[in-house]
Amino acid sequence: MNSALRIGILGAANIAKQFTDAVCDSTHVRVVAIGSRDAAKANEFGASHGVVTRHGSYEALLADPQVECIYIPLPNSMHCEWAIKAANAGKHVLCEKPLTLSLVEARAMFDAARKNDVLLLEAFPYYFQPQTGVMMDLIRSGTIGDVRSVSASFGFTLPPPGVGSSANGTNIRLMPELGGGSLTDAGAYPLSLIRLAMGCKPIRVLAHPRMDAASGVDIAMMATLFYSDGRMAQMSCAMDVANERHAVIMGTKGTLETEYINHAGVPLPSQMRIRRGTAFNLPFEFITSPAGLAVGSGFRFCAEAFAAKIHAQDFAALEVAEQYSLDNAQVLEALAKSAKTGHEINLD
Q1: What span, in angstroms and rounded, lies between the C-alpha atoms of 38 and 42?
Q2: What class is the 127-291+328-346 domain?
Q3: How far apart are CA 208 and CA 234, in angstroms?
Q4: Facing residues of 327 across strands?
Q5: Is 12 in contact with 76 (CB distance < 8 Å)?
Q6: How far is CA 26 from CA 29, 72, 306, in A?
Q7: The Cα angle at residue 8 between residues 44 and 189, in degrees rounded to 5
Q8: Which of 51, 90, 169, 224 is found 20 to 30 A from 70 (Cα to Cα)?
């Protein structure tokens, strides 16, 4: 790449600060501007994180000619609106997960990107960790045989009041009007891992939520996914447990276990291990990423991979990612409906 992709940050959320710090020394991407609906917040963000250009509105950021790509870390319910506006402004879009809350919205976002000849990518940082590439190589090579089932989970404890909160002091993850709840905030991760490992979307789903009476969002959820060939997968997510992130991919010839974390490094190296064979007494073998690639921020890996696709105008590669995002959006929407009705929901 001859020049770094120039990124503008839409909103001064905590995750935007993490993203900006993660890419600060990259030679492939550069955060050149921040836009906030509060000019004081934009100035504070810029001063703290070395961003020179600061805008007091989202619209001003989209109109900034130096910005080539917009990173969207806004609340879930706002992704669709601002991704479409960014695309219509001629900007590429890197949007935090989940891309959106419905299949209709997801399609509208990709349609806007195509109409304006820009690229749109859903930002799952763990996707771009080298270890995820190793995991997919093992699956595609048949090392564990045919994948028959996946069990994936992600849980964490909500931060103290005030951290990641809206202006009224309520954590945005507890606000249904902003797309809060464990399914969208945490469940999007294990569901995306299941989609990767199973190779397709399910045909129907059944959710079992545990609701938070005060906020009205699901504080935890378990779900079963059913596939057209008889396979099944299970997902669990929660916002009131100790941090945990784990997936078991079960094949006809072996088993893979992974933590699929976003940011691998000291003191938190991502763990992945494989059992080659079907006997219970066979030992697990720890799997490491290629030398020199095991440590790093998923934010940076993701942003640099996106920059490379933009530089190459590789629309074909992003079409594959688009199908994953459309499937993820449809499953999230179906599970939300199942959680509300208590019934199985057919996707087709």
Answers
A1: 6
A2: alpha beta
A3: 11
A4: none
A5: no
A6: 6, 19, 13
A7: 95
A8: 169
Is 66 within 8 Å of 293 (Cβ atoms)?
no
What's the CATH class of domain 5-124+300-315? alpha beta
**Residues 78 and 308 sit within 8 Å (Cβ to Cβ):** no
H or E element in which residue 59 lies: helix 58-62
Q: What is the pTM of this model?
A: 0.93
Cis status, amide bond into 267, omega within 30 of 0: yes
Compute the distance between CA of residue 120 and CA of residue 15 in angstroms, rounded to an integer: 19
> pLDDT tens digits, residue range 68-115?
999 999 999 999 999 999 999 999 999 999 999 999 999 999 999 999
Catalytic residues: 97
Half-sphere exposure at residue 70, Cβ-oriented, CA atoms within 13 angstroms:
33
Residue 138 has pLDDT above 70, yes or no: yes
Three-class SS of residue 234?
strand
Domain-wise residue ranges, the chain: 5-124+300-315, 127-291+328-346
Mean pLDDT (the chain, rounded): 93
